[in-house]
Specification:
The protein is mostly helical and 227 residues long. The protein has one domain. Helix content is 83%, strand content 0%. The termini are far apart. Keywords: Hydrolase, Membrane, Metalloprotease, Protease, Transmembrane, Transmembrane helix.
Length: 227
């Protein structure tokens, strides 16, 4: 049974988005399925491990961990600021190539991501999304892979690959061809970087901060060109 668990963990988020967005054509249902999966799967595993008293031991000493956490936070803020700047700058220079603004405004209205609903988009992207995605991919799944299954480098690669997979479903309808496929590559690269941060500092704080800044860059595009 365990050999089927990892493929399910890899594909579960993509299946949830496909079911809600492409299957049911409902953004609220998509959010409920997707974020419900990201939250409940690691939470259920954590509760089970608590009951069986099988919690993993810390991999580094407390004093070193505190020092690394400080470095992790600084790296998270610094890299996140760089991501934010790169996203906004790329949009400023190249948005005529990959954004059909009238079509995209209509799509956002259809998805209820405009007007009075904008605050929900902000909260999801800046708070819920980075926290749950990092907890699931760089916390839960990456840890499972590195517990004797594959090498750390392969674990980072695989989690980044499947993290990128479901972004295809959300990016393709938004951006113009062929840029919509090409824009998945920065998502994959960011996943590699955040996976490296997780392994290097044994903490999710930095990757969550960096991820949140990157999502703030996406919100910057929204407010500059789509609001």
């Amino acid at each position: 049974m365990d050999r089927y668990k990892i493929p399910i963990l890899f594909l579960g988020p993509t299946v949830m988005i496909a079911a809600g967005l492409q299957g049911m054509h409902s953004v609220p249902l998509t959010f409920a399925l997707f974020y419900g999966w990201l939250l409940l799967v690691p939470l259920g595993s954590f509760i089970l491990r608590r009951r069986t008293a099988d919690l993993a031991k810390p991999r580094i000493q407390t004093d070193r961990k505190q020092q690394w956490q400080k470095t992790d936070i600084l790296l998270g803020i610094g890299s996140g600021a760089a991501f934010f700047g790169a996203i906004v700058a790329a949009a400023a220079w190249f948005h005529p190539l990959f954004l059909d603004i009238p079509r995209l405004k209509g799509l956002l209205q259809e998805w209820h991501f405009s007007g009075e609903h904008t605050i929900w988009l902000v909260l999801v992207l800046l708070v819920l999304n980075p926290l749950l995605e990092e907890t699931y991919w760089r916390g839960y799944v990456l840890r499972k892979l590195t517990d004797g299954r594959v090498s750390p480098a392969m674990a980072v690669f695989l989690t980044s690959l499947f993290y990128s997979l479901y972004h295809v479903l959300s990016i393709v309808p938004i951006f113009e061809r062929p840029w919509n496929i090409a824009l998945v590559l920065p998502v994959f690269a960011a996943g590699l970087f955040w996976g490296w941060m997780r392994l290097r500092h044994a903490s999710l704080t930095g990757s969550v901060l960096s991820h949140s800044f990157a999502d703030a860059g996406i919100m910057g595009i929204y407010f500059l060109y789509l609001s």
